[in-house]
């Protein structure tokens, strides 16, 4: 039985300068019902992103012309196209750099191509729930909906919808957690990805999360974000 397709006919841009890796990824994506197009350097990747508007980008870090970090920064300047980083660099600082700039996920080489496809499908499910039109800038997880254009988060309930009055940092924290709702995020990662540069202490994350949780509780959602002992936080099961 073929793997389930997260988003029928979604277009994935493979930005990878090694032809053998691009061939393998293209073949595995095709078996899962996903279309793909390739770019062998960073500049070409940006050109194809602009002209084809892919639903997701598989982005290698070490590429000619422009590296993956430069490409990711420009893509985030343009909008919120989902990006999964492909990198041979497995140090924590490299992962944090990608997440801070705005990567949705990362896979370290050498990788299992089937795992890459699974990650792609998971990200597409988050950003295109129910097969919505591509590039619609919403994330929906359970009762929560984040509007990435208006920077608003709404909690849907039986008594109506509640628009949460969040600070910019609280919004960033929620969106970061919603992008990977089952994943436990460390405080340091959340600090780098979501908080202003001047807030350099991990306990500052706890303060922001505490205020965020109180606002969600007041709107009728308890236990979100959830504590993960010894790690940090994840979105939680209450959604």
TrEMBL record:
GO terms for molecular function: phosphorelay response regulator activity; transcription cis-regulatory region binding. GO terms for cellular component: cytosol; protein-DNA complex. The modification 4-aspartylphosphate is found at residue 60. Residues 136-237 form the OmpR/PhoB-type domain. GO terms for biological process: regulation of DNA-templated transcription. Keywords: DNA-binding, Phosphoprotein. Gene3D superfamilies: 3.40.50.2300, 6.10.250.690, Winged helix-like DNA-binding domain superfamily/Winged helix DNA-binding domain (1.10.10.10). This is DNA-binding response regulator AdeR. Residues 11-124 form the Response regulatory domain. The keyword Phosphoprotein applies. InterPro entries: CheY-like_superfamily, OmpR/PhoB-type_DNA-bd, Sig_transdc_resp-reg_C-effctor, Sig_transdc_resp-reg_receiver, WalR-like, WH-like_DNA-bd_sf. SUPFAM superfamilies: C-terminal effector domain of the bipartite response regulators, CheY-like. Residues 136-237 bind DNA. It holds the Pfam family Response_reg.
